[in-house]
Amino acid sequence: MVLPPPHNRGWILPSIIVVLVLIAGGLGGVWAALITLALGFAGIAAFHLAHLYILQRWTTSSLEHYTPLPEGMGVWGDVLAALLRREQKRVAFQKAQRQTIEQFHRMAEALPDGVIVLDDRRHIEWANLRAQQWLTLDLEKDRGRPLGNLVRMPEFLRFLADDLDETPSGDDLAQQQRTLVIPSVFDTGKTLELQQVPFGHGGRLLLARDVTQYEAAARLRRDFIASVSHELKTPLTVIVGFLETLQETPAADMPEQTRAHYANLMRTQADSMQRLVDDLLTLSALESGAREKEEEWFEVAPLLQTLQQQTQVLSQNKHTVTLTVPEEKAQIYGVRDELVSAFNNLLTNAVRYTPEGGNIELSWAVDKEGRGIFAVRDTGIGIAAEHLPRLTERFYRVDRGRSRASGGTGLGLAIVKHVLLRHQGELTIDSRVGKGSTFSAVLPVARVGEGG
Ligand code: ADP
Fold first, then answer.
1. More confident: 190 or 170
2. Which of 5, 150, 230, 281 sits at a 20 to 30 Å CA gap from 341?
């Protein structure tokens, strides 16, 4: 409601009294005029007192519920109207402020990060839901409480104690000091990166970011580099050792046979390094996502026959290698070289982990759902159930010594997994210790054809 501008109506009441006094004086003489004047003043006083009372009641009314300002008469009408206008402006201003705050809260809730607003004494003023969950806070209860009392970790307390004003902004080192990474906060399993920036009058804004996945990836990278270095170091140490011996021993003092033996041992180690580097390059090419070769349809039967022959050669006829391909015309759609490398890895493993005299069976079949299954079954040493979930991890080996001795790099199954992933397939493993294993490369329906 918009009120008209105020008019000064303070003259109305005194004018009425003057008229009444004149009439009373004319009719009843001086006394009557005086009495009317006195009554008039009393009336004016009562009028103002009544309005003062109304105003006093309004100013002390509850702020929670809006109480409309009563209308007044005479000069009070103008005063109260002016007050009402002020009040309306204040209400509109407050509403705009509330909307801004609500918008800020909505924005802060929509952020993928946790946000905590702290006052100049590091007491909590506000926190979004994410920050409350991650730091197990409850804003209802904890608003106004010191954050340091609620998150009692020494490194966090030191971090909070940092005087932000003393470090110039834009300074990288200062920025680092304002950042803290805390692993597994309150057993939530999350690793949080906290950052604080000055905010408001001496307060600060605390931002929390979930860096769990990033940290896990960084750890994986660190472990991987450590593993590769370790894997390369072993054969390299052997080679360097032999080279030193060869350098330090005069040719005349070393029989030709010993020299040849050393050369052989060095060759074995160099081969193992070569295999490792080759596998690493294959794996990194697969992980990079880039494809060197195009996908194509190719026949399964002739490929498996070649694989069977190669496996027989690899096994040096120490195993019986059989092949079952019921569907002669079956075809696969994919990158031939990648799939051949995956199948080869499974076959090489079967040879490595099956003692002499055992059987290795290659098979291709299409299951009820139409998926193509390339399986390698062996009667080898088998794998205990607890190792199965980790077998495709890089460098995971059940028996490190046995793997190395048989020329394993620990990367074979990781390569198989990646190749199959790139073909939307999967690797399933079924194994029993002492009985043997079946590794199945399962390819999706869309990649399996009848041919013909
Ligand atoms: P490696 O080069 O050591 O063979 P892989 O990634 O190919 O590495 O295999 C990982 C581990 O899985 C091997 O070290 C071995 O312990 C186990 N494994 C793989 N295939 C077989 C199998 N057919 N029979 C028994 N164990 C196997």
1. 190
2. 230
